[in-house]
Every structure is written in C-alpha cells, then in structure tokens.
Amino acid sequence: MLLALAMLAAIMIGWTGFIASDDSLYFVGADHWLTDPPFAGDNHWSTRFPLLWSFAVMLLLFGRGYAAFAATALLWYGVLVALVGLFATRMGGARAGWIAALLAATLPVVISNATTVSVDLLETSLLLGGAWLLGEGGSGRVALARGATAGACFGLAILCRETSLLSLVALAPLFLIGRPVSRGALIAAGVGLMVILGGEALFQWLLMGEPLRRYDIAFHHDSHIDRAANLEGNFLIHPAIDPVLVLFINDDFGLLFWVASLAALVRGRHLLPKARSGALIVLATMAAADFALVAVLTHKLVLNPRYFMLPAILAIVIVALWLARSTRWWRWPLLAGLVAINLLMLSVGNAHPRWEMDSLLAASQAFPREMISGDPVMVRRARLPLRFAGRANLRYAPALPGGLVVAPESIAPRGLVLAHYPSPPTRLGGLIEALGGRPFVPPALRHRMFAPNQTMLLVRTPR
Fold first, then answer.
1. pLDDT given at position 18
2. DSSP-assigned states of every residue in 340-379
3. Which residues lie closer than 8 Å to 110 by C-beta, 6 or more apart?
C-alpha cells in the first residue's frame, strides 16, 4: 500500500504528459506500424522498435489519443519499479526490495520519463534485466541460456537507443578477468546480442536494401549539440568534474548519490553476501562504464541526467541494501527523508514546458471559427493535439491584418488583447500560494516558483 501511494503521489506531483517532442515522433512511428506495416523507420526515433511496438499495442487498446500515451509511459514505469524491487530483493531480501522500489518509484529522473512516452525507462529495464541474468551465473546450459537471454536484452536496449553500447563496454574487462561471469556465458551473451542486431539488420536490408541503415540515421540525426542543455538543472564548474556534479547537485537525483556514497563508505564490501554479489558486480561495472564514457564523450552527448539512469539504479540498490540492514530507529526516518526530498524536487519542476503551445490550443478552442497565428515551431508542435481535438485553425505567424495571434507578453504585437494566459505555477508554488505564503518567498525564487513560463497574450491585430 505504501508503494502504491508513493507511486500515485509521485505521478500526480510530477505529471507532465504530452510534451509535443519525441513523443510526437514515436506516435507517428507506432501509428505507421498499425496502418502500413512493416515499417523500417524514417528517422532516429522511428527506428526504436521495442518502444514503437509497445506504443502501437496501447494505441490499439486505448485508441489514438492521450490515453495511449499515458498507458505506454506508465507501463514502463511500472516495469522498471518492479524490476528494481525484485533485483534488490534477490540481492538483500524482501525489505531491501521494498525500499528500492520506493526509491525508484519516486526518483525525479524516473518520474520525468514516466508521464510521457520516452525510451529511457524501457532501455534501463532491459539493461538491468540483462545485468541480472548475466550475473546470476550458474553452470553448463543454465549459464549459457541466461547469457544468451541477457544478450538479447542488451540487443533490444541498443534498438531502443544506441548509447546502450556505452554500458556494454564493461563486458570486455569482465571477459578478460573471467569473473564473476564465466567467459562461456559472456560468449553466449554476445551470440544473443548479435541475433537481435543481426535480425534488425536483415530486416532493414530486406525492406530498404541497407543493413546498417539505423546506425547511419543515428549518427547523423543531429549535427548540432545544444550546449545550453548542459545548464538545465545542472551546477557546472569545469568539464573535469561536471559529470560528478550532475550526480550530486541536480534535482533529478535529490540526495540519492550522497546517501549511496555514505552507504558505500560505512558498509563497503559487507553490503551483501559474497554468494549473491555477481549480479551487483555486473550492474556496477556497467554503470561505471556508462558514467565514464558519457563523461568523456562530451563532444557527442550533453550532460543530461537521463544518461545516468544506470548509475542511479545502482545507487538505489546500494542504499536499499544498507537501509535494510540498519537499525529501525533511523532506517525509516532516512527513507522517509529521501522519499520526501524526491517529491519536493518533483514539485519544483515546470509541469507545463510547452506553455506557448498550450496557449495556442486554448485560443484555438475559444475561437474555433478563426485562424489563430503563432510561432511556427509551436504551431508544428500543436498539430497532433489539434488533430485529436478535430480542429485545424492554427497557422504560422505573422497574423493577417485584423487576425488573431498568440505571442509572449514581452514581444506581443500591437492590437486588442482578447485574453491573457498566465503561466501556471509549479506544484510547490501552487501549494505555497494556496496557503498564503507567496509574500515570504524570496524575490529571486518567485519567477521560477510562481511563473516558470512567460504570460501569453491573444491579440487581434489592427486592420
């Protein structure tokens, strides 16, 4: 019951929903599989077949609307939370499993991907599942079967996103050492991996005549890296330590890595029995490889917290194993504090990142018989919601003389203002406002707390 309540609270506080970004592209790809299969994909996002197939199933079940988006996101959220809980249970018992599930269910970097269709939670689930299977070991055919299945999980993760290869670099030193996974199991994992990737290459060759087409698309889909994304929620000082700062000073992780570091210092090797350490060692090696390579490849990747999902899962398991063996009088206060910090971090996020698009849609609904002009980028983003609403009355700015335009208050054109669309506050800001605490919030924080987006205006231009 506590886990269910925590999941419900985290989803309600952190809900963003449709953001008219990658989720729009996933919808087009999934819809194509329903209307004209098979579909080889025509861009970076529509080649992520494991996500597209699950999304297509939800479109069949719930129809072509927002319900299918939510169902797909929540499906992989539930799968990841369950998998983390079961993994920690295997490592340290039922109490560790429940603690890990609670932490995963409320971690902001998880919730930010749990309310909109994204590939991150599915990819992380596959990597964790593969690490678990590989680390379980065994002997003879059992070890080979687990290795081959783990390899299949890794192959599917790569089909979700090619950056999964970064964490798989860890398998090379494990192969050289021969522990805790046998070389035979690792070879079987390589076979399982190649079956998946080879099957996808064969699929692309049969349909498009180019077996490595998905990789060509992946490595050329974005020639420009938006370095401004490095500053989103990050506290950066110098490239040499910036990746570490992302883990320790970012609202997407709360205090998780601080407490995990404390747990590692206090308990060290005694976190779990040696007989069950194989899977955790594999996961730790993969997480370390993922972190190190993302940190090094700054010319190809931005320091986005979602690239550190595997290290976050490792930190969750370490904290859960520590707390499960700690004394009760401070175990529960510390767990409650971690969950509370997670929910607090969620509550300060901007729940309406596409407020300009939302304002366009509100104006479109208020004036369904007139064409509403807006920023071309936002008009394009609004096409899918407009389609769901059965309207087609948006056009690119500038507006015709006497026409309607939606624009930010700071750059709105002259004319008769028909409507204001003030930005909704953050969840925490709304609560503070309802309790009458706004005057006590420092001026430097008021904008972020109570108006994270610009106020939008609906203006009728002069004739």
1. 93
2. HHHHHHHHTS-S-TTHHHHHHHHHHHHSTTS-EEE-HHHH
3. 77, 80, 81, 104, 121, 309, 312
